[in-house]
Structures are given as structure tokens and as C-alpha cells.
Amino acid sequence: MKYSALRKAVLDANFELYESGLVISTFGNVSAIDRQNGIVAIKPSGVSYKAMNTSDIVVTDLDGTIIDGDMRPSSDLDTHIELYKSFKAIGAVVHTHSFYATAWAQSGRAIPAMGTTHADYFNGTIPVTRQLTDAEIRDDYVRNTGRVIAEALGNNDPLAIPAALVNDHGPFCWGVDAADAVHNAEMLEAVARIAFHSRQISQESLEISAALLDRHFQRKHGKSATYGQPARSKQV
Ligand SMILES: O=C(CO)[C@@H](O)[C@H](O)COP(=O)(O)O
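A: This is the predicted complex of the input protein with 5-O-phosphono-D-xylulose.
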């Protein structure tokens, strides 16, 4: 089978996503990009995770044209492709409807860095996008979803804040490869849950100091990492 290594990595990441409990039914999807060959491998649309196998993973070019595979690619393909074009350092994209992150997204609220758990994985506020206009929903909706994510990240390093909450919809995460992107989706859901309950307890919006944010993020992902952690921003 062609593109078997990329397909297998994407299949395994989709299985991990399902086993993590971040998705139910056919919600969500994982893709990865091979930038050298200009191809994307993505979950097929509407297929049960339990029934998926390597040959079901659909391979497209960066225009979204299917180059190998018998099934329809995920309905979110154009969002994934838009993120690959906007964020050159990422190697994979994950979309979920995980409960807490989706609740923050549907509420139109960004998740501020309320504590060190957040700071360990996200170097600042996890942004929420603006709502799409009726025209953006009518024309090129899926690609426009990717555009408002890139807009919400602004000048932030996408590997330092590897997630965004799409208003009215749900979270998109990314990483250097499919396993990293799924891990970031798991960390996002944990942070979203802690943030929800922290705000319920405190009845106000909390935010840690820039010094504490930087200390925690840098010690896990910065150049001075002492734990031998791979630098998250390795190029793909
Ligand atoms: O966001 C949505 C639906 O709201 C989609 O992500 C579905 O959750 C999964 O669609 P497929 O990947 O099966 O096409």
C-alpha cells in the first residue's frame, strides 16, 4: 500500500484519540502532513474509529484532491490544510469535541493561564476565534474555519500554543507529529476542565504571573530544558 508509514501513524493517532475518550461516535479527526511530498493523510469521514484500518486513511494533496484512498476524507480536511499552510512548523492536526474544551469554545471564551498545569503545555492564553460571518459560513466554511484559527493565533508560536477554540464549534490542536498533536489535545482537555472548576471555585477570572508562566513553560519546552525533553519546535 502506498504511503503506508504516514497512514499507519495517522491511524494509530486516531485510535489513541478514541481510546483517550476525547471523541465519541465519529466526532473529531486526526491528520498528518508529509511536507517533502506535499501530501496529507487524514481520517475518512463518518467512519467508526473501531472499524478503521490503514487503507481507510485517505491521502490528498495540498489542494484537497484525493491521490490515494477509496473513502471520502474528513469533512474538516480543508481546515487541516489551511492550518498546515499557516503554521509551517506543524506536522499534524487534531480536532475533537472534547467536553470541557468544547464548552469553552461554545461559550466564546478563551482559556487564560490560570495555573502551572496550563503553563507546562501552553505558553499563554488558549485563544478562542471570532464567530464566522454568514458569508464565511456560506462560502468556503471549512477553509474559513482554518483562517480564523490562524487569525486567533496571531504572532504566537503555534508550537508554544498548540491549540485554539473555534467559536460555536470546538477545539483544534496540532503538534510536530500525530502523536504529539493527540497529546496536546489530551492536555487541552485537562487544562479546560481544571480552568472551568477553578473559575467556579474562585468566581472570578484567574491568571498566573508572566514570570510563573515563563518558568514553567521554559523548563519543559525551552532551550534550557533539563529533563532531556525533545524540543517541541523541531522542524517537520
Ligand atoms: O466538527 C464536526 C462536526 O461538527 C466534524 O469534525 C465531525 O466531528 C467529524 O467529521 P468527519 O471527520 O467524520 O467528517
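The pocket of 5-O-phosphono-D-xylulose is lined by residues 26-29, 43, 45-46, 74-76, 95, 97 (CB under 6 Å). Residues 4-221 form a domain with the L-fuculose-1-phosphate Aldolase fold (CATH 3.40.225.10).
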